[in-house]
């Protein structure tokens, strides 16, 4: 019951961001990535959130660079990961624009691994 409600909500949210993403204007050069700023303030207590960081403060939490480089990782996969319950990660309530920004930021870490 709650699970199916979550799926419906995730679908609504996905549709909403797909629309607003096209309306997003490019950031002025040098402006900080809002997703990185959010990740640093909301996720960094457990996750390594920066490019090139692999060791998370919370030993159970994968680094964002690792998450980004999981084969097949995509915007929808991250959205649903952020809207499902995890055993060890608290359910963090994010606004759709915040989720969008963080998801975009995580995906900027893709292929940075070397
Ligand atoms: C209190 C610690 C904590 C915080 C804060 C936290 N996480 Fe996590 N996160 C974890 C742990 C531990 C895992 C490993 C999976 C689990 O819960 O079993 C995880 C897993 C994940 C995953 C992988 C999920 C999957 O399905 O494999 C993603 C994506 C993620 N976190 C994103 C975030 C984002 C984005 C934030 C900030 C908005 C955040 N986390 C904040 C502890 C945390």
Provide an overview of this structure:
The protein has helices at residues 2-23, 34-42, 64-68, 75-82, 96-108. The chain is mainly alpha-helical. The chain has one domain. The chain is globular. The structure holds heme C (HEC). Heme C is lined by residues 42-43, 45-47, 58, 60-62, 67, 78, 81-82, 86-90, 92, 94, 102.
Layout: helices, strands, pairs:
Elements: H1 2-23, H2 34-42, H3 64-68, H4 75-82, H5 96-108
This protein binds heme C.
What key phrases describe this protein's structure?
mainly alpha; 114 residues; binds heme C
Provide the residue-averaged pLDDT: 83
Helix-strand sequence:
HHHHH
Described by strand count, sense and barrel closure, the largest sheet is: none
Bound molecules: heme C
Shape: globular
Over all CA atoms, what is the radius of gyration? 14 Å
Number of domains: 1
Strand coverage percent: under 5%
Q: What are the low-pLDDT stretches, counting only 5+ consecutive residues below 50?
A: 19-23
Task: Count every helix, treating DSSP H or I runs of 4 or more residues as helices.
Answer: 5
DSSP summary, beta strand count: 0
**Estimated helix fraction:** 40-55%
Helix- and strand-based class? mainly alpha
Q: So what's the oligomer here? A: single chain
- End-to-end distance, in Å? 43 Å
